[in-house]
Amino acid sequence: MSVILECKSLTKKFGSTTALFNVNLSLERGKIIGLLGPNGSGKTTLIKIINGLLVPDTGSIKIAGMNPGVESKKIVSYLPEKTYLPDWMKVSEAISFFKDFYGDFEEKRAYDMLHRLNLDPTKRLKTLSKGTKEKVQLILVMSRRANLYCLDEPIGGVDPAARDYILNTIITNYDENATVIISTHLIADIENVLDEVVFIKEGSLVLHAPVDEIREKEGKSIDSLFREVFRC
Amino acid sequence: MLAKLTKHELYATGRIFLPLYSIMLLLSLINRGFSSIGELSSPFKTLKGFMVAAYVISIVATLVITFVIIILRFYKNLMSDEGYLMFTLPVKPSQLINAKLIVSFLWNILSIFVVATSLFIILGTSKNLEMFRGLLDLAVTGLKSTFGSSYPILIAEYIIMIFVGTIYQILMIYVSIAIGHLLNEHKVIGSFAAYIAINTIIQMLVSIIVLIWTNLELSIFTYTPYYGTTETITGNNVNYSVSIVQAITKQIIPFSIIFSVLCCVAFYLVTNYIFKKKLNLN
Asked: Is residue A162 within 8 angstroms of chain B, CB to CB?
């Protein structure tokens, strides 16, 4: 299996606070990976570095062998924790925007998903609720045929029913060659779909292991292991 | 990709500017209509007064909003949450700046044309046009007599200066916002502070350069026969004033243009550097 993401001694500081410290991480293709950690542990910082929104202070990061840049952005599909679409746009306009810029975007897939979730593409984004906007964003991101998906808190703002649909969407929408990174603290909800987990604590990597191995060795769920590792 | 970015930028800004321009042109047509009717009964007089006020407001609004939109688009689309979308597109940061710059420049120039058109609609009676032509002739004659054959150069220089000046203003706003955005908090205040600081530094630089230059020039004026155009010169005083006039086309405006271009390059490079290496979205 080839490597899709390779981080070597990645460090990022913001003033006096260290957001990431000496992170070494190698992720393979074809996996769904949970990036788990409490608030402020550095999950978002890592995802922002993968997407070129932050530049690490030291260390290197390679996406499919490339430094973050125009070429890597073509194969990474990123869902930030923000509502990042211009709110004056109609849903259909947001779709055209993605279609224009991303060669791997599949318009039909996006419209199918909108239809399934009963979302009206002629609506303006500003008229939609926060949860609905998040659904639209996730649909856009998952309608790309990317190599790496970075989903930062993709299920935080939506109701449990939609949560199931969204997770299902994620599982069924990526192909064998692609890897999905899901950052969240709602572990119980996504535990079943994960192949691997990465635990991150105060900017440092504390665990990277396949879910099955953890269940076998530790004899407990990821959720309870998380509560143990990150006990306050 | 630049073409696509520019297209989307035009679309995003056009939805504000085009209605604005249409309203202004419509108001100028209405006002032209009123003024051609002649004597009006009193309710119409009130309406006319109202329309004149609306027209004036629309002109001011167009000029102010053009400026405000340039700032807001850059700030909102690149530095706020929308930045997460824009900076993860498969484009270079410089392309993001270029697209914004091109479109801002275009609206700036277009707003001047639209205001001119609307004035033409309101004031363009045959009598006024004749007067306008007369004034234009007068201006050209004046320019000719002062600048001699070099007056077309002066006009060309002036037009270039307007274009460069517009780009200068836009890029200065961009670099200020980018610098303010380096702060973790108070980014907007930081942007204002950066704008004021840059302005002050440039004013100081210009003063220093002018001071040095005029000292040099004065010595030249005093000791050597400068700019040997003698055709219209009869005495020392005239010689001096002709030299000053010549200095405008040959030195002052070209210097302003070159200086502004250099500032533009600096603003651009700093903005691009911040976007590439120091991006700090909230």
From this structure: no
Interchain contact B14–A (C-beta under 8 A): no
- In this prediction the pTM is 0.88
| C-beta neighbour count of A226 within 10 angstroms | 22
The Cα B226–Cα B233 span in angstroms is 12
Q: Quote the longest CA-to-CA distance of chain A.
A: 51
* Mean pLDDT along residues A178-186: 89
B171, B179 contact by CB (below 8 A): no
Backbone angles phi, psi at A9, to 5 degrees: 35, 60
Q: Which residues pair with A11 in a beta bridge?
A: A58
Q: Which amino acid is at B200?
A: T
What is the C-alpha separation between B181 and B184, in angstroms, rounded? 7
**Contact A85/B85, CB-based, under 8 Å?**
yes
d(CA B187, CA B179): 9
Give the amino acid at A136: V
Collapse the DSSP code of A64 into the 3-class scheme (helix H, G, I; strand E, B; otherwise coil) and give the result: coil
B15 with A88: Cβ contact below 8 A:
yes
Helix locations, chain B, DSSP H:
2-37, 42-74, 82-86, 93-123, 126-147, 151-180, 187-223, 236-247, 253-277
Pairing of strands A3-14, A58-63: antiparallel
- Establish if A53 touches chain B: CB-CB under 8 angstroms: yes
A101/B87 touch (CB, cutoff 8 Å), yes or no: no
Q: Span B242-264, mean pLDDT?
A: 80
Nearest chain A residue to B9 by CA: give it.
A97
- Distance, CA of A6 to CA of A21 (rounded, Å): 15
Is residue B122 within 8 A of residue B28, CB to CB? The reply is yes
Average pLDDT, chain B: 85
Inter-chain residue contact B8 with A82, CB threshold 8 Å: no
- Chain B, window 47-86: residues with a beta carbon less than 8 angstroms from a chain A beta carbon: 77, 81-85
CB of A88 within 8 Å of any CB in chain B? yes
Which residue among A53, A70, A80 places its CB closest to the CB of B90?
Answer: A70
Edge-to-edge strands, sheet with A32-36: A76-79, A148-152, A179-184, A32-36, A196-201, A204-210
Q: pLDDT, tens digit, for every residue of A19-49?
A: 999 999 999 999 999 999 888 889 999 999 9
* ipTM metric: 0.92
pLDDT tens track for B15-52: 999 999 999 899 988 888 887 777 777 777 788 888 88
Test the A interface: residue of B9, B79, B84 with most A CBs within 10 Å: B84
